[in-house]
Amino acid sequence: MSDELMDYDAAMELFEPVLGLEVHVELNTKTKMFCGCANEFGAEPNSHTCPVCLGLPGSLPVVNAKAIESAIRIGLSLNCSIAERCRFARKNYFYPDMTKDFQTSQYDEPIAFDGEVTVEVDGREYTVPIERAHMEEDAGKLVHQGATGRIQGADYSLVDYNRAGTPLIEIVTKPVYGTGARAPEVARAYVAFLRDQMRALGVSDVRMEQGSLRCDANVSLMPKGSTRLGTRTETKNVNSLRSIERALRYEICRQAAILAAGGRVIQETRHWHEEGVTSPGRNKEQAEDYRYFPEPDLVPIAPPRAWVEELRATLPEDPRARAARLQAEWGFTDLEMRDIRGAGALEPIAATVTAGASPAAARKWWLTELVRYANDQGIELDEVPMTPAQVAQTQQLVDDGQLTDKLARQVVEGVLAGEGEPAAVVARRGLAVVTDEGALQGAVDRAIAAQPDAAAKVRDGKVQAAGALIGAVMKEMRGQADAATVRELILATLAR
Amino acid sequence: MSLTATDVARLAGLARIELTDAELEKLTGQLDVILDSVAVVQAAAGDDVVPTSHALDLANVFRADEVTPSLASAAVLAAAPAQEDGRFRVPHILEED
Amino acid sequence: MAALHELTATQLAEAFRSGEASSVEATQACLDRIAAVDGAIHAFLHVDADRALATAAAVDRRRAAGEPLGPLAGVPIAVKDAFTYEGAPTTCGSRILEGWIPPYTATVVQRVLDAGMVVLGKTNMDEFAMGSSTENSGFGPTRNPVDPERIPGGSGGGSAAAVAAGEAPLALGSDTGGSIRQPAAVTGTVGAKPTYGGTSRYGLVAMASSLDQPGPCGRTVLDTALLHAVIGGHDERDSTSIDAPVPPVVEAAQSGDVRGLRIGVVRELGGEGYAPGVEQRFHEAVERLRGEGAELHEVSCPHFGLALAAYYLIMPSEASSNLARFDSIRYGLRVGDDGANSVEQVMRLTRGQGFGAEVKRRVILGTYALSSGYYEAYYGSAQKVRTLIGEDFARAFEAVDVLVSPTCPTTAWKLGERVDDPLAMYKADLCTIPVNLAGNCAASFPAGLAPEDGLPVGFQVIAPVLADDRLYRVGAALERVLGNQGGAR
To answer: What ipTM did this prediction achieve?
Structure first.
């Protein structure tokens, strides 16, 4: 079954999208939210479990102070107010990945609320209002056994509770209006912003592919000129920045087609598939009734104001202020900065400059070779398997005259292919520039002998004819010579 | 207000408790009586009264972020009704169509 | 010297110190007593004989080696099956947990072990501590040693009966609405519910987290205070544990001085519905306390009449959530796992079969009280009543040092009498519930036998938060004037 889709531009003629984004961030604390088990990805199944995170009868939770600290810093970085007093609540529902069959979460008393952040898309700023950031715990991991490995049609499932009790912060936006046709890009930019911010705060590994940053994207459509909110859908399983943009674009086109045909959008959870479609999730017979109530096993949290201010002082530089500062330091134009930010290259370039490269060289590598590689692979720029330090090392080899630009591109290619550090790639591929004067002179002499006509023209002052000779020399040297040096040598030889 | 067998069946579903018809009937009557008698709290609960969720007024009880030993895997799985490959085995999650 | 199983903990400890008896002998005497009478009483669900004797032998060796030992070292104790004890089955009186052997030990049990005490086994209880008669146990009822046709109270009927029958000089209990005090009252023993947060709940299988509190059971006031001192105090594994020293309960039990103590008789806890013999013994005891130098006052706690209603909303609500984890996935019973049933069906079948009627009743009641659209009217209102009851106590304790009432409106009733009348059963906890809602402390002490049926009457003393010592001061005075020797039946 495939959905009717309206053309995106046509949909934008008729409707105004309204976004809502829920982002879960797994904190990188040493231990879990409520017990001392290691908070670690990838361990043997059920090896990081204890009576508390297994929910054994009689066990009791105790809050991880570091998780509270991270929650407050996250809240502050999103310009939220921090609650004077808040409580945990139990969200009651049965599911085999939850050891207590309730999730310890926050309900009407989040630790942080009423914030906003500004993101930029194509040089325009959009304000995303933040409803709340609250604390909760993650569930265990289910593996479904059966023909497909998916929950549908599984014969049975297996549970590993290592992840159960991992501290999570859920960041929820208020409805985001006024993004127009840019809605998918704004959503993407917002999640990218959160990712960068969490990384700068040092509170999470924010690996979308490992699930340490997860996004549920809500969207509804409002007829142009109306102020009545439409029915929204929530799309889950959106595990990359590109997917957020694609999934929202798809949902907008799907909902627009339904509404334009006079139909009604069903309020439901949908799943994103990397093939480029969303599909309806499980349709529950009745709406869940989570029966929230204050968690009696935990006491309220009342962060002293002095502590909150202490934590505020640890926040990283505001991203917009940082961008402005770097632009001034680097001397880039507004247009250049826009391209850099659009490509998500700001932090990689900053790190490359810190590692010793010039801003111009750093910008060149990240906006050409590396962005092309990222696009080909469908990954983000900061996920390419080459570090800013490696980019800086490669550039250093160029600056030292050991590599030509062309050779340097091969070095980058080698690093990206997993061949090791730049120096190792140079050695392995034998890419060093030939600086042996004797070898170069021999090649120049042979080229002149082979192309007497060209040589004669150069001697007659038609210097552009030297190109053919340079080409022959470079060919013989298999590109591992500096073209400018070769040209000078040819001209000097013919001038004798 | 009075509680019907349909209400009780829905609640039993939420609480994941299978009830026989006889149990459902008996419980409906008993719960109705109990609810009737506990409803007196509503009259006493004025808007000016602050609810109490915790017996004592404690706050900010935290634990340092330090790793403590987990249970041995054998102890974790010892009581599992079913297990496989170091994991708890559970019946299929979705209802069959 | 009397038979070892008849001695109080204090007497046993003295016998160990003087060399008149060893812990192994005392432990064996208790095991023998259990073998002799528990077929009729059914106080125990599990007797841990081998480990008990080994522990006793180890304590005897340490004593022989001259190691310093605590005052209760070597004294046998029974543990309510609501507490985890690594290596011993823990069922909480429920078929759904049958055969579960926890991989960890509750804090209060660990403290008992650290004090050199000898755990004899696990005692019977109403399933998940839900009941006032121990008839709701999934493993059959416990009988009252005073009269085997009668209930021993509940939920901790097993612990109270074990103590009353001389199967153990001391026992651990837990009190959510009266589960230590009411069984103490109807078996003629002593039981205390410490201040909420005064004893750790870590390892106590939860019924209602904001109300549950572990506490001591014994035959004498001093024994009970000694155990209170062993198990009390801060535990970092329980977030609701109070970081303060245990009040001086042992000193208070040794003193029993009530001169000048202001005692408030709660006007609302008496009158209609109270057995005449209960009221008579209660008032006599109050007069005896006046004779010992206490000042008497009448105090009104106007919202106590709402306590039972608030309790029967808050407790089932929390219980409905606490008992969700019994879902057949990680431990305990699993029913209907035939490959065709989904996990939801298996959970339903397991819980339908594994839970008894009272548990189902309370879980469904709690599910209702918390459900969307009813939360404010039920759970929310009950929490407000909780505030009002706390305010009643606060006002009362401005005027008096302790409050007193009967522990239970009646003496022990006959088995089966209230099984089909939940409301009548719930009323057994009328006097004990307000304390759990407010979080302060209370204890029940023997006040003699009701003239009309010759059954024990309990005298409840209530004190403010962290003034647990006052309970024992009054209890010791009563014990002195009423001549309770702490003998086993």
So the answer is: 0.97
